[in-house]
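To whoever is on call:

I kicked off a structure prediction for a single chain this morning and the downstream step that reads the tokens threw a length-mismatch warning. I double-checked the sequence; it's 199 residues and nothing unusual in it as far as I can see. Pasting both halves so you can look.
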Amino acid sequence: MNTSTNIIWHDSEVTKEERQDRNSHKSVVIWFTGFSGSGKSTISVALEKALYEQHIHSYRLDGDNVRHGLNSNLGFSPEDRKENIRRIGEVGKLMVDAGIVTMTAFISPYKEDRNYVRSILEEKEFIEVYTKCSLNECEARDPKGLYKKARAGEIKEFTGINAPYEAPTNPEIVIDTEKQTVDEAVGAIISYLKDNRYI
């Protein structure tokens, strides 16, 4: 979907592999997906802190935070959601090239959009983390009061209420946030990163 013309990629003299060697760890996108209220942001914040404490170069891209700046011109229509994820995927790709472990916490309701992000990264540079939580539980938590507003008709196209969510079919990691604590979730993800020699 490149509409720009007369542009030429300018290579760096520092490679991704050299940056990874300097950092003493691989770079990867850890993509959290799930309903609003499923725990994506909470777990990603805790994971970022845990990685920082282990001297891992990492950064977190949060759905709401990114919509304050980079994606402030996008709404929540299917087309805007697609563009939201495309932009984040491209930012994630740049972060991986910079040698950084990047966490993204986005509802990202459509499989096609998540698979697109996976496709623009190299093999094993995309780790899908499904924060599994029933809609009933997410609605009961309702940390931002969004479900209440959606039920009242104040929010249109809200995932789970009047817009679809397509759960991952084969994610690298599943975190059941109705059963696992935040610390257990972070521990499981760090174990995966170590077992697969990212860190």
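Update from on-call: the warning came from a stale cache, not from the record. Cleared it. Sanity check on the structure: The beta strands are 28-33, 58-62, 101-105, 126-132, 173-176.
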